[in-house]
Each structure stands twice: as C-alpha cells, then as structure tokens.
Amino acid sequence: MPEFSDEAEVTRVTKRDTRVDLLARRRALTPAARAEAAGRVQAELVALVRRLRPRRMTAYVPVGSEPGGADLPEVLRSALPPDAELLLPVLRPDLDLDWAAYSGPDALVAAGRGIREPIGPRLGMAAVTGAELVVVPALAVDLRGRRLGRGGGSYDRALARVPGTALTVVPLHDGELVEALPAEPHDRPVRAVVTPTDGMRTLDDGPGTAHGVAPHTSAGRTRAE
C-alpha cells in the first residue's frame, strides 16, 4: 500500500491514465456517431437555455471529439433572448481564463491547444461571476459532480469564481457519467450533465449509483452495473 504522502501522486497518475483511456474512446467514435451525439446534446442544451432564459451564459467551442459540435456557440446564441450575452473563454498565458462575447462564427480565431476564441474585447477573468448558466467541458463527471478535465486547471480556476446560484453543466458522450473519479482538493464540482441518451441530469451531492450510470475503475474504464 502507498504511504499517505504518496497519495497525491497516486491520484495524479490515476487521473493521467483515466484521461488517456477516455480520450482514446472519444477518438474511436465514428463521424456519424459524433454528429448524432452532437445533435442530441445541442437539443438538450437549447431546451435548457430556453427554459432558464439567462441574461449571461458561458460556453466554449468544442474541438475534435468533444461532445456538442463545433457550431455549439451559434446554436446556443440562437436560443438566448435577444438582449442576452454568450461569453466564450480566452486562454491566458498562465492557463487561467479570460472571457469575451461571442458575436458569430466569423469572429472566432484559432488559439493555442487547438481551441477557437472570440476576437472581441476581453472582459476579464471575473466576467464569469455574472453568468447564470455555465457550460463546461470535461472528459468525464462522476455522481458527486467531480469533473475530469485535460489537466491544465483552467476551468477549476474559473469555476471557483462562478456564483452558487449559477447552473454549471457539462456536455458528455454516453458512458462518461461515472460512479467515481479521482479528485484533488483544487477540483471544482459541477451541478449537472447532458448526455445524448439520457439528456439533462442534475447530480447528487453524495455517493450512490444511479440507474444506467456505469462505475469507473481505477484504470479509467467503465463497466456495466
């Protein structure tokens, strides 16, 4: 058994291995499967936006195999009230997140790490504090709301600024809502997920296995209940 002082390193290694596995499974999805999943996730998020009618929300531009599709910002903007704002993240050199308003697909530019960012004025890191709905990327989320990102810590910092009244939601592929994930003290939980098959789901604040949710093993694989 590892010494207590080694537990943090064990968690980091487990996170790394889990990321590798999840990314491999995302890359294995066919273009048709990705497109179908994107359509269903978009429909659920549009329904959520129309129900909540936020005056300010945040999202991001999915890249590669991320669920939601590259046109997600445009789809979400079309569902917002006319006077509402949609903010997208701008990655800072220190890996924290600034924010800028989304004004259309022609106002996006390629940035580091394969992401696309808006070209408008930067609104500051604190702009997220005014958001009522925050759409967050992740590779997986567990039943306590703990999310596994790509390891840069950008969204953990941003989520620390999100007010408790805001709804934080992660689009996922099927099988990426899991029983438990390795976590560190700086990890920030989210309140809900959207998956292609099960739609919108709010998360419990405690342990337990829900119907249709697969537990996550230490190797980063899911197994049937």
From TrEMBL:
Substrate binds at residues 61, 66. ATP binds at residues 15-19, 147-155. GO terms for molecular function: 5-formyltetrahydrofolate cyclo-ligase activity; ATP binding; metal ion binding. The keyword ATP-binding applies. Keywords: ATP-binding, Ligase, Magnesium, Metal-binding, Nucleotide-binding. The keyword Protein transport does not apply. Gene3D superfamilies: NagB/RpiA/CoA transferase-like (3.40.50.10420). This is 5-formyltetrahydrofolate cyclo-ligase. It comes from Micromonospora lupini str. Lupac 08.
